[in-house]
Amino acid sequence: MTRRTVRIAMNGVTGRMGYRQHLVRSILALREQGGLDLGNGETLWPEPVLVGRREHALRTLAERHGLTEWSTDLDAVLADDSIDIYFDAQVTSARVDALTKAIDAGKHIYTEKPTAADLAGALDLARLASEKGIKHGVVQDKLFLPGLLKLKRLVDGGFFGEILSVRGEFGYWVFEGDWQDAQRPSWNYRSEDGGGIVVDMFPHWEYVLHELFGRVTSVTAHVSTHVPQRWDEQGKPYAATADDAAYGIFQLEGGAIAQINSSWAVRVHRDELVEFQVDGTHGSAVAGLRNCRVQHRSATPKPVWNPDIPATESFREQWQEVPDNAEFDNGFKAQWELFLRHVALDEPYHWDLLAGARGVQLAELGLKSAAEGRRFDVPEVSL
After folding, report:
1. How far apart (Å, rounded) are the C-alpha atoms in residues 286 and 216?
2. Which residues neighbour 256 within 8 Å (Cβ) at sequence distance 6 or greater?
3. Under a CB-based contact definition with an 8 Å cutoff, are residues 294 and 112 in contact?
4. How far apart are CA 202 and CA 358, in angstroms?
5. CB–CB of 205/353 below 8 Å?
6. Which residues, at least 6 apart from 88, have a Cβ–Cβ distance to it below 8 Å?
7. In sequence order, what are the residues at sequence separation of 6 or more whose Cβ sits closer than 8 angstroms to the Cβ of residue 304?
8. Among 54, 123, 194, 340, who pairs with 92 as Cys (CB 3.0-4.6 Å)?
9. For residue range 137-152, what is the model confidence (pLDDT) as tens digits?
10. R_g (Cα) of the chain, nearest Å
11. Is the peptide bond before 114 cis (omega within 30 degrees of 0)?
């Protein structure tokens, strides 16, 4: 077996998502399994180089996982010709500058979303990467969740007939930080630092809707800052200037309507932190992170509205669980594997910076809709 090394500069791995999902559960998991099997007797071995601003945090991570390379000097890392890929999981406000430097240095790009603070910036990155001839990808992890993979199987198999509507519920209560520590970083709640649930979640909803049901053609949104004061990592109070809840209506190509509520100020009364209900002429489904349940029209009960008597049936029990029928790996790792194969073997890959720009566009138009109180068309983006 021939081993081929790919060196990856990983910026932002001291943060929760960059560390847990991208470093530990993706790149280090690939190393634990012996590398990525490319076929024909060749294995791709990922070699991470940790990058960040906090020297102590980087050193601690490296020692914890037996890694030897880390740096607080991004420019020096990007000047290293042995670095093949630059990965970015920093705060959004720092992303464009770092990605631009990496593209100029000729590195392949893999990045968290949103790729930029606005559509113009996102398209500039896509154009620059295209002109440079590098390979580029944007994390779109929810497409690889077991629940949504099962949902896609249903769509592809024609289970729904004509799809009429999609209803999504996402969110949980994020503690304010005064009497219990917040489980999200404080910058998420400051618009001046790139925070806000629209900027964070609308890019996710764009690719989920686009890939499963059709392109978003218009958006109507209402946003709110339900919790106006929070406490930061040092226990100091600060004004929450970013939206912590968003209520969106999306018209889809083909005529279906999607309604998705996103909130960090909601207590969970559902089976999973995100759930999508899809209703069609032939059947319906409810999919979450891992599970998916269906009800075909041939097995649909006939409820009758009568508020004068208690419900006589358990509606949840009338749904059927969709079987796994496959082994599902961690979604972040699965997409990393596809991107690495794209870099190593030039295999097809379409979750690129232009796809990332569509998510930025939807967030931008969602905020504009909320500010002006009207619906906006979502034109197709192109370079």
Report:
1. 21
2. 163, 164, 165, 166, 213, 214
3. no
4. 10
5. no
6. 11, 12, 95, 98, 99, 102, 109, 110, 111, 112
7. none
8. 194
9. 999 999 999 999 999 9
10. 22
11. yes
What is the spatial distance between Cα 107 and Cα 220, in angstroms, rounded to a whole number? Answer: 38
Six-digit token pair at 364? 């931008």
Using a pLDDT cut of 70, give the percent of the chain over it: 100
pLDDT(311) > 90: no
Q: What is the average pLDDT across 79-104?
A: 96
Q: Whole-model pTM above 0.85?
A: yes
Q: What is the DSSP-derived secondary structure letter of residue 82?
A: T
Task: Give the Cα separation of 300 and 282 in Å (integer).
Answer: 10
Instruction: For residue 322, give the DSSP letter.
Output: P
223-243 confidence digits (pLDDT tens): 999 999 999 999 999 999 999
For the chain, give the number of residues: 383
The predicted model gives 192-209 an average pLDDT of: 96
Measure the CA–CA gap between 84 and 378, rounded to whole angstroms.
Answer: 35
Q: Position of tokens 């993979």? A: 149
Helical (H) or strand (E) element with 95: helix 95-104
